Amino acid sequence: MVEYGDDLSITEKDELLRYIYGGWIIDDPDEGKRVSSAAFRDHEDTPMSVFLRRELADVRSTDIYKNGHRWVVTLSAGRLKAELGQRICLDPDPNAPVGHRYVVGPKKSGTARAAFTATYRWVIAPASYNGSRGQPEMIDGDP
Hints:
By secondary structure, the chain is an alpha+beta fold. The protein has one domain (15-139). The protein is 13% helix and 29% strand. The protein contains 3 helices and 9 strands.
């Protein structure tokens, strides 16, 4: 079993980027488009993946963005740790992409994932998003 060590450099003010693919974006009567709670599940063999924003030159510079995850949300490291009981951990792979981290903690219940959906803010939003969570930095088409 892989051990994930806490990233002690993470502060409560750090922003964590979660890259979203089209299947995780759903219609919403209040927001136009929103992120499904499915976007905040752990992967089959690793915890949920994020990128530490302050380590990226541009949110569009990652391979995951270039490979089709065109929409991006930000999550507050402070809220994830203090309110949702998550740990922000280093990727143990020495060849991991710049800025890559894992979010380790309970996410299996719908209630836990719903708490994630309540905390995100769009960085790159779909065109039909209506601005109800604040203005995104960029717009990039619709899924």
